[in-house]
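Structure record:
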Amino acid sequence: MAQYTIRNVPESVDRTLREEARRRGKSLNEVALEVLRRGLGVDEAPPSYYDLDDLAGSWVADPEVDRALEEQDRIDPDLWK
């Protein structure tokens, strides 16, 4: 394996890499290598997404939930005095 020393890393890149490493519970080196592989298009693993796409289109109508939401939309005039 080759080893590199990278100089003049912008502060924003350093901060983001360190935050990402901390968030993932990985080393700075591991995260930097993942980012380099992905950026170069040689990533072995598909990217992990942390979004809500799996929930899109899965809403099921529920009258009880609708009643609870209507309750939250009601304005209490005493609170606006």
